[in-house]
Amino acid sequence: MKGIVFTEFLDLVEDKFGIEMVDRIIEQSELQSGGAYTSVGTYDFSEMLKLLKNLSSNTGIAIDDLLLVYAEHFFSVLEKSYPLFFEMYSDPIEMLASIENHIHVEVIKIYPDAELPTFELVEKTDDSLIMIYKSSRAMHHFGLGLMNKTFQHFNTTASIVLEKIKNDGTEVKFIINKN
């Protein structure tokens, strides 16, 4: 997993819970990296799981809820870092429908060894979208949070239903209907 995911996560933890919490979850997680991340480095996904689990146990906030909040934070980082990218789209459905064939292609150009989930487009209309998320990492709530922020970015709303296809969350159906 790319280091930017770790560095931004720890920045969010510091902003929301303080530097002491960052130190606590790093220490509790017994990370191979020692919790020293660079945004361009690559780190084992198990370290993110440990950090999330320890943050959850220290705050009483469910991991899925933490991932939603983190996605909101990460989306704002993307908006600031890549504003031209967002200007390419005028509609959230179009942007989300382009995840696999455009957005992830651009991400790979920046981070060639990034391990990204796949989003299979099942059905698309002007106001709706059905996609299947597949990943060895069950971070579908992070994806859900990014989708929510995409609609906010375009000053519109949607109902997004998440249906687990596999109980472990490695395959999930997103049913999206723009309001």
From TrEMBL:
Protein known as: Heme NO-binding domain-containing protein
Ranges of residues in domain Heme NO-binding: 2-160
InterPro entries given in the database record: H-NOX_domain_sf, Heme_NO-bd, NO_sig/Golgi_transp_ligand-bd
Matches recorded under SUPFAM superfamilies: Ligand-binding domain in the NO signalling and Golgi transport
Pfam annotation, one family: HNOB
Parts forming coiled coils: none
Domain of life: Bacteria
A GO MF term: heme binding
